[in-house]
Amino acid sequence: MCQFAGCSRFLWNKALALQKERLEDKQSCLSYNKLANMLPAWKKEYPFLAEAPSQTLQQTLKALDRAIKEAFDKTNPKKFPVFKKKYKSKDSFKYPQGFEISNSRVFLPKIGWVGFRRSQYIKGKPKNITVSREIDHWYISIQTEQRVSEAVHPSKKATGIDLGINKMVALSDGTYILPINAYMQEQHKLAKLQRRLAKKIKFSSNWYKLVKKVQRLHWHIANMRADYLHKASCALSKNHAIVCMENLQVKNMSKSAKGTVEQPGRNVRAKSGLNQAIVDQGWGELTRQLSYKQYWRGGTLVLVPPQFTSQKCSACGYVHADNRPSQAVFHCQACGHTENADNNAAKNILGEGLSLLACPEKGAALIGHREPVQSDRSLKQEIRSRLVA
Ligand SMILES: [Zn+2]
């Protein structure tokens, strides 16, 4: 598995280098088919590549092709793909076919039968399998597809949510979910390890040991964050058929604080703290989880434009900057309504979301909102389990 994952990583880097060279020469990127046609020559040049299953190598090239296309997608550009480092990247390879799944074992081409701890029943048709390594453990992710009947959301409630730093999620009913800030909790430990790592001789055996430790801590932080976010999004989605939230461009907000056009380099320290908190709390990930969980349950996520939601009075609608005497308190200058500022904003978001739902031509981004005629739909799911020797 190490070897196959290494081949995938090597091929990714090789093909990415080629694409980057072409871009620098002002040429267009090679298509997937052209890259795949180069595989036989590369296998001759690097004989170890021939030992990996051809399908997994093709899948690597497909993944790179998709990543580059997504980076050039004008409506929602993603980060340009980067080279994979041996000791930093997650190692993985993917089988599009040729695998078999039994109760507790899985057959992987060119590897054989491997046992796994099944994390849940596998419903639907398995479409592909990804084998990946996290620190010392290997996992399989089985992607399945199944036809399901139209889901009817169990709840009739709607809520607006306001994302914040002190309260991760403030709901329009006055409740809130506090953040976990996994990275901040562990950052001193991490800094200490990294200082020790800097003193070691690179690629020495003690260096490797420390690299492992750093990786394990990062893994732990990521797991804490993911677990917490899943619990939060699950509770929100279970209890509300309609969730309204601001359409925040988290990617722009968490960009470097040093140079934005509007405010070049002001409050750099405060802002980089804010950015870190946004990244740490995983606002983007929370939005992603809410959108697919609402889709599963037959609910709706409404993304509303983030304008004046914090300055508007949720009781009378008066908008003024003076309505916010402090970060935490909202006090309306017109009607005297006083409330926690985050919950006031959440109420505005709910109001805005519901009005957008009533007339979608106003341009709300609705996620999970489907045509009512659709009687069944396909549901894609990824089931992840740990492999055992
Ligand atoms: Zn008011």
Structure, explained:
The chain is an alpha+beta fold and 389 residues long. The chain contains nine helices and 15 strands. It has helices spanning 2-24, 32-45, 54-71, 182-199, 205-239, 250-253, 268-281, 283-297, 341-358, and strands spanning 91-95, 100-101, 105-108, 112-117, 125-134, 137-149, 158-163, 169-171, 176-177, 242-246, 300-304, 329-331, 338-340, 365-367, 376-388. It has a seven-stranded antiparallel beta sheet with strand order 1-5-6-15-4-3-2. A six-stranded mixed beta sheet has the order 9-8-7-10-11-14. It has a two-stranded antiparallel ribbon with strand order 12-13. Strand 2 (100-101) and strand 3 form a beta hairpin. Helix 1 (2-24) packs parallel to helix 3 (54-71) and helix 2 packs across helix 3 (54-71). The chain is globular. Zinc ion (ZN) binds next to loops.
Largest beta-sheet details: 7 strands, antiparallel
Order of the strands making up the biggest sheet = 1-5-6-15-4-3-2
The proportion of strand residues reads 15-25%
Q: So what's the overall shape?
A: globular
**Ligand identities:** zinc ion
Structural class: alpha+beta
Order of helices and strands: HHHEEEEEEEEEHHEHHHEEEHEE
Residue-averaged pLDDT: 85
Query: What is the alpha-carbon Rg in Å?
Result: 24 Å
Measure the end-to-end span: 12 Å
